[in-house]
DNA sequence: CGCTTACTACTTACGTAGTAAGCGGTGCTGTAAT
């Protein structure tokens, strides 16, 4: 039966690994958390069940407008017309029309922010929702706490919509991320379907250097590795600077116009450019099979982010390479960026005091010179509007910073690890290490399944090392 | 916080040291009312 639907509506003869299991779980009405390798055909997992149900809507929450556009287009291309999207790109009339069509609609794509709009929520509450899908569900953990807080509220919204079954999909999730997803979506005894996050086709290399040698090192690696190649940097300026030094390269970051971003992504996709230098803005939803190399000029803030980013290599399954360049002190920028997300206690005090005097946020913004677009200030505002007190917020900030510094430490541990890079990463994702060829710079093809490095239970050591890494310049004796 | 850039001061001939200012990621968004 399922194969028949697969052939008829999706024109595939067979399911790929994991798809069937997820679909069965979805059809059983259970909450499902699925960790599938990238490019594993995730969309079929939530699109197919709809054809086996007599009526009802499939709601798909997606993090990027561009992703929503792509998905809707792909569905239409396969001949399904009962699909719509609800984003800020639609006009008021279009939105109204979509909300009017709801009872007859099969798929609705929207951003998490749209679900915070009262009218959207109300109209959706009147409709039968078969499935509540959260695509790229790691965003709940990655963005939900600080940056896009509507992600953290999806569970409550789901309750308000009659608690339809939920399917959360992602490619990479540690236990912590999994926990964030379960809590954020209020999943009830979810069926957890896990596939290994290991990407055996990608060999892992870390190259440590002095800051001044990095450009030369990058140049040397570029002579050795195959293209197409993605180079990740932390800052936009660095992405632009490095792109200039490389032939047939372009840069990509969030400071570009949406049109330019799309154009460059397309050029890279069609091999007109074979080297893309970018910030973390690049990658989500990019389906390019032949990326041979991912180089990190500077490290990301977490191992999960690192896995997401190197995961863009070798989707065609052919041998690929991930290289991370590290110079002492590289973590400081990540540390700064992390700190910058939280309001300084001065702001908290000032704004709490202003509210006590019934001053509006707008007035305070003027009086105190606060930028209403600053994410840290916006987060503070959300928390205060949610009824949080000064001490709630301070305690929460402390707890979050501690978690995130620890994640950053894990990234450093990966770099300074001396056993096996792959084993370290798999261990981080609570998987057992595997032995394989083309493994990493530390073990080559001689991988052994050994106990790996310290983990969270190494409390004392952790604190000491944290001080060493972040404060050594000031506190050295 | 730490790195880079811009400017100033002082010295002494076009250069250098010292200080101040600026910068550093990710994306969504009913936006009320004249």
From TrEMBL:
Helicase C-terminal domain span: 217-359
Instruction: Supply the PROSITE patterns for this chain.
Output: HELICASE_ATP_BIND_1, HELICASE_CTER
Which positions fall inside the Helicase ATP-binding domain? 23-191
**Ranges that cross the membrane:** none
Tell me if Protein transport is a UniProt keyword of this record.
Answer: no
Keywords (A to Z) from UniProt: ATP-binding, Helicase, Hydrolase, Nucleotide-binding
Coiled-coil features, chain-numbered ranges:
none
One of this protein's Pfam families, by short name? Answer: DEAD
Provide the protein name.
ATP-dependent DNA helicase RecQ
Species of provenance? Exiguobacterium undae
């Amino acid at each position: 039966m399922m194969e028949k639907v697969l052939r008829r509506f999706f024109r595939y003869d067979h399911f790929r690994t994991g798809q069937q299991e997820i679909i069965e779980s979805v059809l059983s009405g259970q909450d499902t958390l699925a960790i599938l390798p990238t490019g594993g055909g995730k969309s079929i997992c939530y699109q197919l069940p709809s054809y086996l149900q007599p009526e009802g809507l499939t709601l798909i929450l997606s993090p990027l407008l561009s992703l929503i556009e792509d998905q809707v287009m792909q569905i239409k291309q396969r001949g399904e017309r009962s699909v719509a999207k609800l984003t800020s790109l639609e006009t008021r009339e279009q939105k109204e029309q979509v909300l009017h069509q709801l009872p007859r609609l099969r798929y609705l794509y929207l951003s998490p922010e749209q679900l915070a709009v009262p009218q959207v929520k109300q109209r959706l509450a009147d409709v039968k929702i078969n499935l509540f899908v959260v695509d790229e569900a790691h965003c709940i953990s990655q963005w939900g706490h600080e940056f896009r807080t509507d992600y953290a509220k999806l569970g409550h919204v789901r309750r308000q919509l009659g608690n339809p079954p939920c399917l959360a999909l992602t490619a990479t999730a540690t236990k912590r991320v999994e926990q964030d997803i379960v809590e954020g979506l209020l999943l009830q005894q979810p069926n957890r379907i896990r596939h290994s996050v290991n990407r055996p086709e990608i060999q892992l290399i870390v190259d440590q250097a002095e800051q001044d040698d990095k450009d030369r090192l990058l140049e040397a690696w570029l002579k050795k590795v195959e293209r197409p190649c993605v180079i990740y940097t932390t800052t936009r300026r660095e992405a632009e600077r490095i792109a200039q030094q490389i032939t047939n390269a372009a840069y990509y970051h969030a400071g570009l116009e949406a049109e330019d971003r799309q154009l460059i992504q397309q050029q890279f996709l069609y091999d007109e450019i074979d080297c893309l230098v970018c910030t973390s803005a690049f990658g989500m939803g990019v389906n390019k099979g032949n990326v041979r190399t991912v180089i990190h000029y500077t490290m990301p803030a977490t191992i999960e982010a690192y896995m997401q980013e190197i995961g863009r290599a070798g989707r065609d399954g052919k041998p690929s390479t991930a290289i991370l360049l590290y110079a002492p002190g590289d973590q400081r920028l990540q540390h700064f960026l992390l700190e910058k997300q939280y309001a300084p206690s001065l702001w908290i005090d000032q704004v709490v005091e202003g509210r006590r005097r019934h001053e509006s946020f707008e007035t305070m913004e003027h009086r105190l010179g606060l930028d209403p677009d600053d994410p840290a200030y916006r987060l503070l505002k959300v928390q205060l509007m949610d009824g949080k007190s000064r001490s709630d917020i301070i305690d929460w900030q402390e707890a979050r910073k501690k978690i995130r510094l620890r994640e950053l430490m894990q990234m450093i541990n990966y770099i300074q690890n001396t056993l096996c890079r792959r084993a370290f990463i798999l261990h981080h994702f609570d998987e057992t290490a595997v032995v394989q060829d083309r493994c990493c710079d530390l073990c080559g093809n001689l991988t052994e399944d050994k106990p790996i490095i310290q983990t969270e239970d190494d409390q004392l050591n952790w604190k000491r090392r944290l001080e060493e890494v972040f404060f050594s310049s000031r506190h050295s004796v």
